[in-house]
Amino acid sequence: MKNKRLFLLVFLISVPMLWIPKGFSLEKVTHEYLNQTIAQRTINEFSLDSYLKNTLGFTLGAQEPLSAYSEVKKIELQQVIWRWVGEGGIKEDEPEGIPRQIVGRARNQNHFHNPLEPWDQAGLHVFPYAWQSSIVWTQNANQSPGGQETKGVSKRSQA
Q1: How far is 65 from 80, CA to CA, in rounded Å?
Q2: CA-to-CA distance for 122 and 99, rounded, in angstroms?
Q3: CA 96 to CA 106: how far, in whole Å?
Q4: How far is the first Cα of the chain from the last one, in angstroms, to the nearest whole number?
Q5: Which residues, other chains included, contact 90 with Cβ-Cβ below 8 Å and sequence gap of 6+?
Q6: Per-residue model confidence (pLDDT) at position 39
Q7: Pairing mode, if any, of strands 46-47 and 42-43?
Q8: Are 48 and 82 within 8 A, CB to CB?
Q9: Residue 78, phi then psi, degrees to nearest 5
Q10: How far is CA 63 from the centre of its chain?
């Protein structure tokens, strides 16, 4: 009887562990802050502000106000581009619903990158799925328009 209880305890603890990713994500507010900070700085000689001004013709660059519906605040509002980039950090972390998660078709499942692994294995791996690293996925010409989703794929088909 004691062995059965021990087995049950080990089983109940270990099975859910198969579904827990190996790592901790940042909180939404932290992603918002990081995105906003990066959007206002020059990093490795890249500046979003300069890119918006010189390449896309936004006169005010990252300070350009844009009006749109805020999915985070649930209202129509006007805010500068660097603040919209922050809101994008929040939205990227929100799951797209249980059914899309279960069938491996949620956009945020491609939102991970493990720098300690080769790029073709650096994405999120939760049995039975393995998704592309966020770095590989952003360059994937086969993702649906707007980058909405890609289906979870096996390690073999990621290369």
Answers
A1: 4
A2: 24
A3: 6
A4: 49
A5: 28, 29, 31, 32, 72
A6: 95
A7: antiparallel
A8: yes
A9: -115, 130
A10: 24
Name the token pair of 46.
């890249």
Question: What 8-state DSSP symbol labels residue 70?
Answer: E
Q: What is the pLDDT of residues 11-62, one digit of tens each?
A: 666 655 555 554 556 678 888 999 999 999 999 999 999 999 999 999 999 9
Reported as a pLDDT band with limits 50, 70 and 90, residue 158 is: very low
- Do 110 and 150 meet the contact criterion of CB atoms below 8 Å apart? yes
Nearest Cα to 112, choosing from 16, 23, 39, 20?
A: 23
Cβ neighbours of residue 42 under 8 Å, at least 6 residues apart?
Answer: 50
Tokens 């020059």 — which residue? Answer: 42
Q: What are phi and psi of 73, to 5 degrees?
A: -90, -10
Strands 46-47 and 65-70: unpaired
The pLDDT tens digits of the residues spanning 89-131 come to 888 777 666 776 666 667 677 778 888 899 888 888 877 778 8
Give this prediction's pTM: 0.60
Q: What is the DSSP secondary structure assignment for residue 153, as one 8-state letter?
A: B
